[in-house]
Write a structure and sequence with these properties.
The protein is an alpha+beta fold. It is built from two helices and four strands, in the order ββαββα. Strand 3 and strand 4 form a beta hairpin.
């Protein structure tokens, strides 16, 4: 079954009282990533439900992360650009 990009949502749910987070997703990319984590780290990530269009996972809420945007200096940006050009020209 094909669903629209708008319907390919991911919802992360947790509260202050519990130590686990629940991740509900219809996004195939997120499913592949979480499926790989379930296989590699079964003590931390669990698949707790699935249908033909969605999956629900459980994991420690401490694994949910918020990050600052990465800021590159002009020199770092130029160096990255040069490395990318060198890789492309190989």
């Amino acid at each position: 079954m094909t669903i629209s990009r708008q319907e390919q949502e991911t919802i992360i749910n947790y509260n202050a009282a519990e130590q686990t987070a629940t991740v509900y997703t219809r996004d195939k990319t997120v499913m592949r990533r979480l499926d790989a984590l379930v296989i590699e780290y079964p003590d931390h990530y669990r698949l707790i439900g699935e249908t033909d269009i969605d999956k629900t996972y459980e994991m420690p809420k401490s694994f949910v992360s918020y990050r600052k945007p990465r800021r590159l200096s002009d020199e770092q940006r130029d160096a990255a650009r040069s490395r990318a050009r060198a890789l492309r020209n190989r």
